Amino acid sequence: MLYPQRFSQFTREHADTLAALLCGLLLFLGWFALHLGWLGLAFLLLPAAYVIGGYESAREGLTTLFKEKELDVDLLMIVAAIGAASLGLWRREYHLIIDGAILILIFAISGALEGYAMQRTERSIRSLMSLTPDTARVLLQGREEEIPISQLKVGDEIVVKPGELIPTDGIILSGYSTLNQAAITGESLPVEKTVGEEVFAGTLNGYGALQIKVHKPAQSSLIQRVIRLVEQAQTEAPPSQEFIDRFEKGYAKVIVLAGILLATLPPFLWGWDWETTIYRALTFLVVASPCALMAAIMPTLLSGIANGARQGILFKNGAQLEKIGQVRAIAFDKTGTLTTGQLQVFQVISVSEYTQADVLKAAASVESYSEHPIGKAIVQAACDLDLVGAIQVQAIPGQGIVGIAQEQEIIVGNAIFVQQYVTNLPEELREMAQSLEQEGKTVVWVAKNPTPNPSPQARRGAEVMGVIAIADEVRSQAAATITRLKKLGVEQIVMLTGDNEETAQSVAKAVGIERVYAQLLPEDKLDVIRLLQQKYQTVAMVGDGINDAPALAQASIGIAMGISGSDVALETADIVLMADKLEKIAVAMHLGRRSQSIVKQNIVVALGFIMLLLVGNFLGSINLPIGVIGHEGSTVLVTLSGLRLLK
Question: Which residue of 464, 467, 579, 631 has the smallest Cβ count within 10 Å?
Fold first, then answer.
């Protein structure tokens, strides 16, 4: 039973592609049968190709005609194809049936490509939904019981153990822990949470067990609001798409009206016979069909997509390749985008009698027993040093850690915590630490007491060894990328982050961004993108986290980091930088501008051929075979022109 189900699911997901492939196969077999003179087999295969390849276009064209009272290119294509086939049967020029089938095949392929693009919204929502657990551990009469998230009510008390995702927004009733909120708020450092503070669904609990009270319905949680924002932003049609739709309908109306006039007026105005009139009218429908215009765009965009893929730039559809070349403003997320998202030791400052290695070695000896991200960064920085084991290690949440190494008590933590063990902090070192904190760095103090397990009287006998500054490292190519984008003519570059103002300004200064929006929630980022769009129209957003998903969806171009990006950011974005190389944004913009230039050239060529063929048909200078050759020749020409982007 499993294989039939998979086959059924596969055919549903790829119905348009399978129809185009089957149409192409039947077209080839029908042409081969005609070539061998097997008319009966050809007349069986070719109508099947028409029906299978043209069904969806015919359905859409007729639906638009009867429901919206509008004509579109889909219906025009069907009329042109059937006209070519009818003329081929009438004059026994059966190759014209092949030409009609080719028209249908081109549109079937185009429809399949559009179908894949439309599946993005559903995948994005599925990825968002996977960020929260399906069940929550609820306290009922002193017992823990797992129930579906949908059954949670305001006032319920839930238990979240270390390492688990928070199932819904709530207020901490008891417990203390650090929560990784980067996916929701964009904060680079885990945030310490205790009784009375709010926690968000989808954030990751650290080392402490929490008892949380549900204070709002599950569907009103921050993550659910993100889901709704993504849905809303992705269903809003961009202005360029609306323009294309209007142009398509207007083009179809003009051609159909001209075809009707050409099929009826010439006998009365110029004395043509009806056979010549109908012949030229059907030739008109063939040469006026928009295949060359379609080929002027899609091969170019597909070539650009292939070129980008070779350079680690994944364009999810061709429209975004064009749009990236029109970008006038870019918004960057900070954590994980302009920065690596990984904490690292930024600087070690030691007092005169100790070296930087002494400070790192002492801190790492006790931090090696800690699960805190800051401790891991210190241990990573000291990986080349000969660390010694520590005993009696005790971590004090939110303050620091203490242990005994080489018969000395080592104290590592914030300034307030370390002051409990030392008489005073060196004034010069204190000023340096304050300066580092103003730059957005996290400062850890390191001290040691020569007396292990000191008595209360000797407890404050420790001496400061130095300080360690911890920071989220700025990507090495970030500053050069910002400079390059400015040279390319991007009018406005801003940074959006959930982090505090000091950290945000520090990173912005390092990379060369003047405008910063800090302490933002997902909906705040969305509002900033909308404001930028009002002024600059085409706006790109570069991000990596779940909190960036609404802004990525709303932006004209959403760009996600491929390695560090969350699943939902990757699904929501239009472009993915597969190797997390920011400099590829400038490459993508250049590729987009080249594609625009080639598309414009191809459109001029395609329209020029159509005009020449139409004039030649009206003057009687061409017959239908020449018209078909001119029509197909122009299609091949602009297709080859589009393939230039492969280089």
Answer: 579
Which sign does the torsion angle of CA 279, 280, 284, 287 carry?
Answer: positive
pLDDT in tens, 375-389: 889 998 998 888 888
Strand partners, 515: 494
Q: Is the pLDDT of residue 517 over 50?
A: yes
Contact 560, 569 (CB under 8 A): yes
Q: Which residue has the tokens 């400062």?
A: 443
* Alpha-carbon distance values, 187 to 177, 194, 206, 334 (Å): 16, 17, 15, 9
Q: Is the pLDDT of residue 236 over 60?
A: no
Kindly state the percentage of the chain with pLDDT values over 70. 82
- Name residues whose C-beta falls within 8 Å of residue 599's C-beta, 6 or more positions apart in sequence: 296, 297, 300, 301, 322, 642
DSSP states of 449-507: ESSSS--TTTGGGBEEEEEEEEEEEEPTTHHHHHHHHHHTT--EEEEE-SS-HHHHHHH
pLDDT in tens, 134-166: 788 898 887 888 888 888 888 999 999 988 888
Strands (E), 126-277: 135-140, 143-148, 157-160, 170-174, 177-180, 191-193, 198-199, 204-205, 210-214
Give the count of beta carbons closer than 10 Å to the beta carbon of residue 593: 17
What does the alpha-carbon distance between residue 304 and residue 588 come to, in Å, rounded to a whole number? 9
Pairing between β-strand 515-517 and β-strand 492-496 as defined by DSSP bridges: parallel
CA neighbor of 34 nearest in space, from 95, 89, 86: 95
Look up residue 543 and give its two tokens. Answer: 């991000």
Among 282-286, 384-388, 586-590, 636-640, the least confident range: 282-286
Report which DSSP code applies to 422. B
Burial class (CB in 10 A: 0-12, 13-18, 19+), 26: buried
CA-wise closest residue to 491 among 589, 574, 588: 589
Structure confidence at residue 275 (pLDDT) = 67
Q: Tell me which residues are annotated as active site.
A: 333
**pTM for this prediction:** 0.62
